[in-house]
Amino acid sequence: MVGREQFDQELLAVKDKVIQLARSSRRQLEQSVEALYRADVNLAKRVIKADEQLDEMDLSINEAAILLIARQQPVATDLRKLIVAIRISTDLERMADNAKNIARSAIRLGEDHQLTIHSSLADMRDVAFKMIDLAIDAYYKEDIKLAKQLSELDDLIDNMFSQVLEEMLHMSASNPQKIQLIMQMAFSARYIERFGDHLTNIAENVMYLVKGETFDLNE
Amino acid sequence: MDFVTGIALKQTVEVSNQNIVYHTEDLNLWYGQTHALKNINLPIYEKEVTAIIGPSGCGKSTFLKTLNRMVELVQGVQTSGIIHYRERNILDKTFKVEELRTKVGMVFQKPNPFPKSIYDNVAYGPKIHGIKSKKILDQIVEKSLKGAAIWDEVKDRLKENAYGLSGGQQQRLCIARALAIEPDVILMDEPTSALDPKSTLKVEELIQELKKDYSIVIVTHNMQQAARISDRTAFMLNGELIEFKDTDTIFSTPEDKRTEDYITGRFG
Questions:
Q1: Which domain holds residue B75?
Q2: Which of A24, A219, B62, B74 lies at a 20 to 30 A Cα distance from A39?
């Protein structure tokens, strides 16, 4: 009997890196939304700077997975583990880009904008947090049931976004002088909503990992 | 057609329009007290490459050698069940093994050319089957060597001893020798395990060419090879057929945990 302990450990190391990137993306969302609410330009700048590290993490996951594919020639579940790590990592990196965009909006709003940031953005962020935690859990445990719950939460976040967008349209109609600022807020809501889409992709990838079939949770 | 295992049944449903060359039914084989093949129900499809994989001692080579009854050469072998070859049971006492030999060619692990010229190696089979005309023999030799993708390398030295060829060339010569009798099926028992990577690739490409005209069954230890060249893969373990499916499925989403463990290198 010959096991593949070394390879198994390397597969686990890639998985750990993906989970680390997921946690970092979560932190980026947390801090960017905080910068928005607190009108903290310095914090927003730090979020933008930190995004470079997340890009590097994504790159390092890609490199590690490609090297393992080349050296170990994995098949079946082993191969899917690596392909899925690459795909999930891409989604996480794009989630972080959305956090960076929220930070940019915070900088554009500046420190003295006198605008009350809509409370729905914090609510949307909380749903996104829940989704990230669920996605990490589903990926870690390779659990399809957990993955499926993500699509329901994505519907929730989509509805919240539609509602908040409508409110902001009314708001801009009655405050035309603030339209530029309100737009930054609407953009930010849109960026949070994008988290839901990426997390749904991650759920699909967890299902592919386990089942070996492609699913579309957006249907 | 009626198969015992559900897996085999599923296979027939999927490809009912395809011809079957071989079909074993509850094939059992014993070497003395050792039960080497256990109730094997396996169809071999026409003009496809069927790979048989499994750890050492799983019975894959034994299975291959039952298909041309070469296994009978081992003392104390007993078989039960049926091997249909083109609807006839080759295990039936009335079936002449010589007839099978003209229909089924075999290529072995190590190239085994005769200590004769390249030409004579290929012409040997047709000659013992009664072909005497020099002109016809010339044609057969050229066609077979071309078929085995070695003609260009040897056409100017057909009278030279086959032992002067490289290992890879010798193996392709043995394939040419198998083609010379115009077989229906070619059995290959780890045909590239003694070859370097470049020669291996040549033989693999050749196998892809050959399946246009022949049905090929290949036993291989090299799982990447099975994945690269076969249409269907059978996984055997301890004399049992564990899983038999199209190769894409076996190497992406095998059903049986033992298949998954073997192809991912967790045992064997």
A1: 6-263
A2: A24
Question: Of how many residues is chain B composed?
Answer: 268
**ipTM for the complex shown:** 0.78
Yes or no, beta carbons of B260 and A4 under 8 Å apart: no
The CA distance from B184 to the nearest CA of chain A, in Å, is 32
The total of structural domains in chain B comes to 1
Classify domain A5-211 at the CATH topology level.
Answer: Methane Monooxygenase Hydroxylase; Chain G, domain 1 (1.20.58)
Q: Are A77 and B223 an interchain contact pair (Cβ–Cβ within 8 Å)?
A: no
Residue B103 lies in a domain: yes
Q: Is residue B268 part of a domain?
A: no
- In this structure, the strands spanning B34-45 and B20-31 are antiparallel
Question: How do the pLDDT tens digits run along chain A, 219 residues long?
Answer: 456 889 999 999 999 999 999 999 999 999 999 999 999 999 999 999 999 999 999 999 999 999 999 999 999 999 999 999 999 999 999 999 999 999 999 999 999 888 889 999 999 999 999 999 999 999 999 999 999 999 999 999 999 999 999 999 999 999 899 999 999 999 999 999 999 999 999 999 999 999 998 888 876
The residue of A71, A73, A75, A215 whose CB has the most chain B CBs within 10 angstroms, and thus the best one to mutate to test that interface, is A75
- Put simply, whether A74 touches B (Cβ < 8 Å) is yes
Any domain includes B1: no
CATH number of B43's domain = 3.40.50.300
